[in-house]
Design a protein that fits this description.
alpha+beta, 3-stranded antiparallel beta sheet, about 15% helix, globular
């Protein structure tokens, strides 16, 4: 798991990253077979404010090593990342909201409205994985981890294999597919 500092300096400008510290929240969901259950969700954020694409690397650029790949801080990704925790909170408040299973076997949230708006012709996506370590439930409560792997605007459409409610991702993880 990537641990964000509270702030970084990139090309002489200070950027706050404390919004990516992660949080714990929960939601209740009525499953088809197991009745009403509660999911405690620990959310963490990967290094998606950085890119390994062809960004310049001048002196003073904030560069990290991410699993052996050099990545440079990207101010536009940072600007969009400010909205990501709020979007995740909206999914916790309304877990019936739709997510998509991508062809790469991770999940995505298609964001139709985000500030600042992506470039014309681009769509903002949040990509995530959810994990359950098989731990025993405490009553009807299950602990899962939500890792926000990436969040950025793409001009190319992301192919999805399946659409489902956010809560069903947790349900299928814990109880298996319906």
């Amino acid at each position: 798991m990537f641990v964000h500092p509270d702030k970084i300096t990139h090309l002489g400008v200070e950027y706050a990253l404390d919004h990516l510290a992660g949080e714990t929240s929960s939601f209740v969901w009525k499953t088809k077979k197991n009745g009403e259950v509660k999911f405690n969700v620990v959310t963490s954020y990967a290094d998606h404010c950085y890119s390994d694409k062809d960004l310049p690397r001048p002196d003073g650029a904030c560069i990290i090593d991410s699993r052996g790949v050099e990545r440079v801080f990207c101010p536009s990704r940072h600007a969009h990342s400010l909205s990501v925790p709020k979007i995740i909170s909206e999914y916790m408040a309304k877990p019936s909201k739709e997510v998509r299973l991508t062809a790469d076997r991770n999940y995505s949230i298609l964001c139709m409205t985000i500030q600042p708006k992506p470039d014309k012709g681009s769509t903002f996506y949040i990509f995530f994985h959810m994990k359950w370590h098989g731990s025993e439930a405490v009553g009807d409560t299950f602990d899962v981890e939500l890792n926000i792997e990436s969040a950025y605007a793409k001009s190319r459409h992301v192919v999805s294999r399946r659409r489902l409610p956010f809560a069903v991702v947790a349900e299928e993880l814990v109880f298996g597919k319906r």
